[in-house]
């Protein structure tokens, strides 16, 4: 009974933590819906008065981006802003032939009168954070706009964002990500679905009530003074954007989130690239929890409610670990439930997962509807997309849990960039991309084993107990089987 009691306790704790996170999401939904009803006016610069137009530096941190550099530079060259008040820094840490092709293209753009600099370093100390910090040392702009290599801002992007810095307390203006290749595959649709929830429900829900949000690493603008006041960029975590965001907000800087300003970008089209990105984001989240949690709790500048939301925000990636624990222990729990009649009362805790799933389903429906509109047909499409997303997200839980554990236990690793492809439809191939990982991740073996494990879970539903089986967990195990199967087989086949 000791082992059974331990399993029940761990399982119950993980379920309750997921339920708490779901309740926080529900609170953000209420905030989001209330925020959409209100149109808060903000002071803005008057761009019809040339004296009010500030100097802006655009930073483009890049590393071995052979396939997208021309597209990036040509797009940035179209930005509509007074030429005498704009400079562009290409912060190029590249070590391959893309450095030379980028240099040649920049020379051509300079001939058009564009104020653009090609800046390189002798080493990649601090990775992206180090490049941004070095560029900041010589940046002339009062405001620093940052774009990753796969982002394509509209030409009026600066005119839609910079005016909000009229408020001297605003340290960051962040825009919503769009997706130029959303419909490329199931993988891109799932990624877009998850990101849309973050950029609507979470960012608006937190920002509308003054809770901490994060600069998303790209498609946003920083006040240079804010960066310096917060301690500048630091490369000791894999999510330098989240780190600096929290340090800035602890210093009382305000963030402005613009849901209506969309900045299109490219989603990873191959699973090895998505795995790399997911690993970095989730490990970085755990690293920042370790770095920032005590500072948040000790701060006298923020409310208790903001502290709770901040801790849950920093623990976002750790939810994958809780999901994995619940998933793995659900099969032993199935047998325990049917073996010990007197323990059945404890299994009411299982309903927490069902309630949490319903909460997520409702929350994500409102974010989906805000982008695509409502109606019965769209609701059916949404329902199919939600359960596809939920299954594949659970399929990533083992991979992401390893990242989370490394982050919490302080294991350091390099900043691995996400390969870019510059493709938007299935007719455009990716297999020749030189940046795709040639080796299969060892984590794929774990995912294959878990796929078989959850197939056993489905089989167990037919044989446990003496009442002809127990099918309460069958849908859960089916989604886990499909999710891990998708990740496992895609990881085996989607490589160069």
Beta-strand segment tally: 7
The main sheet comes to:
7 strands, mixed
Mean residue pLDDT: 93
Number of helices: 16
The strand line-up of the biggest sheet is 3-2-1-4-6-5-7
CATH hierarchy: architecture of the largest domain? Alpha-Beta Complex
What name is given to the CATH topology of the largest domain?
A: Spore Coat Polysaccharide Biosynthesis Protein SpsA, Chain A
| Overall outline | globular
How large is the radius of gyration?
Answer: 24 Å
CATH-defined superfamily of the largest domain: Spore Coat Polysaccharide Biosynthesis Protein SpsA, Chain A
**Ends apart, CA distance between termini:** 50 Å
Structural class: alpha/beta
The unreliable regions are none
Note down, in words, how this protein is organized.
The protein has two domains: 2-32 and 317-493, no CATH class; 42-270, Alpha-Beta Complex (Spore Coat Polysaccharide Biosynthesis Protein SpsA, Chain A). The longest helix is centred in the first third of the chain and has 36 residues, at 2-37. Helix 2 links the parallel strand 1 and strand 2. Helix 6 (186-207) crosses helix 12. Strands 3-2-1-4-6-5-7 form a seven-stranded mixed beta sheet, with helices on both faces. The N and C termini lie far apart (50 Å). It is an alpha/beta fold and 496 residues long. It has helices spanning 2-37, 69-76, 98-110, 127-138, 157-161, 186-207, 224-229, 240-250, 271-298, 304-314, 319-339, 351-372, 376-395, 397-408, 443-463, 474-493, and strands at residues 56-62, 86-92, 116-119, 143-146, 170-179, 220-223, 254-265.
């Amino acid at each position: 009974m000791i082992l059974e009691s331990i399993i029940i306790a761990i399982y119950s704790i993980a379920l309750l933590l997921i339920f708490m996170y779901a309740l926080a999401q529900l609170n953000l939904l209420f905030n989001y819906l209330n925020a959409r009803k209100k149109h808060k006016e903000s002071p803005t610069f008057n761009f019809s008065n040339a004296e009010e137009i500030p100097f802006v530096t655009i930073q483009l941190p890049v590393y071995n981006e052979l396939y997208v550099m021309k597209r990036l530079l040509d797009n940035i060259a179209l930005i509509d802003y007074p030429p005498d008040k704009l400079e562009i820094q290409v912060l190029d840490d590249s070590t391959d032939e893309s450095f030379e092709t980028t240099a040649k293209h920049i020379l051509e753009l300079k001939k058009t009168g564009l104020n653009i600099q090609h800046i390189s370093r002798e080493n990649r100390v601090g990775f992206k954070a180090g490049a941004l910090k070095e560029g900041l040392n010589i940046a002339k702009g009062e405001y620093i706009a940052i774009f990753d290599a796969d982002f394509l801002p509209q030409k009026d992007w600066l005119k839609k964002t910079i005016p909000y810095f009229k408020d001297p307390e605003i340290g960051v203006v962040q825009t919503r990500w769009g997706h130029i290749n959303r419909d490329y595959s199931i993988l891109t649709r799932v990624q877009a679905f998850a990101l849309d929830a973050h950029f609507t429900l979470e960012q608006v829900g937190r920002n509308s009530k003054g809770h901490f949000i994060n600069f998303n690493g790209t498609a946003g603008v920083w006040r240079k003074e804010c960066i310096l006041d917060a301690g500048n960029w630091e490369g000791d975590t894999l999510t330098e954007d989240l780190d600096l965001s929290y340090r800035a907000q602890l210093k009382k800087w305000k963030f402005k989130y613009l849901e209506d300003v969309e900045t299109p970008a490219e989603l990873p089209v191959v699973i090895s690239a998505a795995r790399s990105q997911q690993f970095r984001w989730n490990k970085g989240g755990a690293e920042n929890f370790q770095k920032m949690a005590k500072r948040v709790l000790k701060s006298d500048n923020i409310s208790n409610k903001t502290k709770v939301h901040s801790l849950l925000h920093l623990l976002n990636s750790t939810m994958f670990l809780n999901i994995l624990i619940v998933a793995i222990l659900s099969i032993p729990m199935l047998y325990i439930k049917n073996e010990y009649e007197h323990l059945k009362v404890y299994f009411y805790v299982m309903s927490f997962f069902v309630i949490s799933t319903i909460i997520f389903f409702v929350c994500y429906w409102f974010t989906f509807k805000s982008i695509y509109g409502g109606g019965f047909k769209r609701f059916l499409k949404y329902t199919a997309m939600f359960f596809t997303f939920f299954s594949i997200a659970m399929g990533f839980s083992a991979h992401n849990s390893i990242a989370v554990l490394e982050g919490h236990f302080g294991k350091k690793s390099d900043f691995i960039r996400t390969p870019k492809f510059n493709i938007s439809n299935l007719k455009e191939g990716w297999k020749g991309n030189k940046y795709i990982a040639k080796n299969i991740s060892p984590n794929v073996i774990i995912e294959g084993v878990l796929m078989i494990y959850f197939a056993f879970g489905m089989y167990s539903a037919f044989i446990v107990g003496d009442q002809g089986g127990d099918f309460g967990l069958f849908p859960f195990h089916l989604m886990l089987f499909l999710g891990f199967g998708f990740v496992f087989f895609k990881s085996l086949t989607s490589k160069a």
